[in-house]
Amino acid sequence: MNASRLAALTLVVGITGAMASTAMAAPDTSWQKSHPRREQVNQRLARQNARIKEEVKEGDLTKAQGAALHKEDRQIRGEERLMASQNGGHITKQEQRTLNQQENAVSKQIGK
Q: How far apart are CA 12 and CA 15, in angstroms?
């Protein structure tokens, strides 16, 4: 291998390595699950998920009703993730209020 090819290969390997290390060292800003408002929304969704499962287990909800409620919760979680992806990994106070209102609607359907 001649010197110019070796230099070019070394440059490519060096640039690739630098890009990989920069990507690994970058803070997790696009997916900060631990942001306080995101945590609150996601913990509430998790509790509602457990409540739905319990109500189905106890026979207070049919499996179809439980599946419908789980679907609504998944849609709320998807909306939360979309909002966070548009806001540097967090959600605004207004977005949190909106998501909580949607969760309230689902919560009212659990255990009627």
A: 5
- Hey, what amino acid is at 30? S
Dihedral angle of Cα 86, 87, 93, 98, to the nearest 10 degrees: 10
Contacts with 2 (C-beta within 8 Å, 6 or more apart), sequence order: none
pTM of the model as a whole: 0.67
User: Which candidate, 65, 2, 56, places its Cα nearest to that of 10?
Assistant: 2
Do 94 and 32 contact (CB within 8 A), yes or no? no
Convert the pLDDT of each residue in 70-83 to its tens digit.
999 999 999 999 99
Give me the chain's average pLDDT, please: 80
Q: Write the pLDDT tens digit of every residue in 82-107.
A: 999 998 888 999 999 999 999 999 99
Per DSSP, 2 falls in state: -
